[in-house]
Write a structure and sequence with these properties.
heterodimer, A: mainly beta, 7-stranded mixed β-sheet, 4-stranded antiparallel β-sheet, 0% helix, 52% strand, globular, B: mainly beta, 11 strands
Chain lengths: 116, 107
């Protein structure tokens, strides 16, 4: 069974940093494109970033470019999102997702809250 | 950026009724359109990928069609467990984008 388990969310002040992790199991992690997708409270889904199977290609939504970094460790079956210079509008549930080409499978999400 | 619009925003439906949700893209996306279901307090689940391919384990009452800029998700014979918000999503070009969602309520 495919499992994606996010961790690392929490309460952080504007301008602060946070690192999200996603532990994958039940499939060959190194064969999946992986993504982070977020959902602000009561709002819709917003794609944040993608990373290719071998980590050679990374893509970001404009609003997080230069602030967020997606990475992966295929040896540890793990996906990461380093978030710096956080803003109030980054408050959301962050989902880890992945698939051979699109987001077939999703984790349960981890909540990131910005508050001073 | 490709903008996806969905209609309707909200639909209240009687069980066993047929539901049709449409998704329109601001430019042609070929068949790179996918549908997700999200129930309250749950993560999204893939229903249909690449316009019409049913994802593993998805009930056969869910189907998708379309091409280019106009796409449809159909739920035949709605069941109570189908109460959810449905999102379309395009992976044809970056940035990947999602539609605003269609909330389906059971009468």
């Amino acid at each position: 069974e495919v499992q994606l388990v996010e961790s690392g969310g929490g309460l952080v002040q504007p301008g602060g940093s946070l690192r999200l992790s996603c532990a994958a199991s039940g499939f060959t992690f190194s064969t999946y494109w992986m993504s982070w997708v977020r959902q602000a409270p009561g709002k819709g889904l917003e794609w944040v970033a993608n990373i290719k199977q071998d980590g050679s290609e990374k893509y970001y939504v404009d609003s997080v470019k230069g602030r967020f970094t997606i990475s992966r460790d295929n040896a540890k079956n793990s996906l990461y999102l380093q978030m710096n210079s956080l803003r109030a509008e980054d408050t959301a549930v962050y989902y880890c997702s992945g698939g051979l080409t699109i987001s077939d499978h999703w984790g349960q999400g981890t909540l990131v809250t910005l508050s001073s | 950026e490709i903008v996806l619009t969905q209609s309707p925003d909200f639909q209240s439906v009687t069980p066993k009724e047929k539901v049709t949700i449409t998704c329109r893209a601001s430019q042609s996306i070929g068949s790179g359109l996918h549908w997700y279901q999200q129930k309250p307090h749950q993560s999204p689940k893939l229903l249909i990928k690449y316009t019409s391919q049913s994802f593993s384990g998805v009930p056969s009452r869910f189907s998708g069609s379309g091409s280019g800029t106009d796409f449809t998700l159909t739920i035949n014979s709605l069941e109570a467990e189908d109460a959810a918000t449905y999102y379309c999503h395009q992976s044809s070009s970056l940035p990947w984008t999602f539609g605003p969602g269609t909330k389906v309520e059971i009468k």
